[in-house]
User: Fold this.
Amino acid sequence: MTVSLADILAARRAISGIALRTPLVPSPFLTKTFGQEVLLKLETTQPIGAFKLRGAVNAVAHLPEGVRGVTCCSTGNHGRGVAYAARAKGLRAVICMSELVPKAKVEGIRALGAEVRIVGRSQDEAEVESDRLVAEEGLVPISPFDDPDVVAGQGTIGLELLEDRPDLHTLLLPLSGGGLAGGIALAAKAIKPDIRCIGISMDRGAAMYESLKAGRPVEVTEVASLADSLGGGIGQDNKLTFRLCRDLLDEVVLVSEAEIYRAMQTLYYEDRLVAEGACVVGIAALQSGKLPPLEGPAATVITSRNVDMPTFTRIVTGQSVTLGDLTLEGSPYAA
Ligand SMILES: *Cc1c(COP(=O)(O)O)cnc(C)c1O
Assistant:
């Protein structure tokens, strides 16, 4: 199973008209702070508020004739993307997800006309229900990341980044299952082989990081995180994204919950953007000092605006946040 630059170019044609070409905007504050231009790719402006629409629309575009409906497991945004893409094609969509998914995301998916099934406390348990729908009701599964059409769809972000700014030196890519980082790195390195692609995850339950370290897909325990969209495993039988991330990412960096908290405040107060914890891991990595100094223009993908608003409000007002067994102390924003 492979994906090529040609597949990504074809994906761009397949998704145009449904998924948008998104703006790449400067962050004056981050540019000043880190001594190199830092740009933000605003996937928050997609019709579903997140980049996952790209992969979902491309996957639905490639379904065989006569399919009755689709299903997926999702921490939220992939479910929204599949619901939106299916509705655009007049197909039934059944979205399975775990109890850890914030309520705002569940409601968002229902509002897009999809059926929602809430099962268990992990992505893996939700997957059992989705498998049953495939076996017993003939729905077609759409993986959130480990599918060549999904990877090619997410890879269209890489085309846009380098068309807008051929001089980009570093890409800071939020990393969970690796469809986003793998697809973007594939497109970007096909166009500009020496561009640096850095994957970033939270330091609690980072499945791709642990898998790359072990040299094979491994399971991790899923825990509550401000970057809830980065939770979940990569699949024991991962076919595509483990290999892509192993071969194309120059480095994977982990950031703490406190670092994510602060980066969410930074993006809100300095750039006036509302975004999920998963989106700001690139900014958190810069602020943490865990990255080598930037050597040229850098971009990070602000992947989604579908944040749980009560949590977001607590963060930007400097209050404490409880995540399972971890309580993050409150702290007001200071530049
Ligand atoms: C899915 C998702 C990611 C990570 O994408 P993967 O392809 O799973 O690595 C990052 N941010 C948000 C908001 C997401 O929904």
Summary: The chain has two domains: 5-50+147-328, 52-141. Residues 50, 52, 77, 144-145, 174-181, 229-230, 276, 278-279, 303-304 surround pyridoxal-5'-phosphate (CB under 6 Å). The longest helix spans residues 148-164.
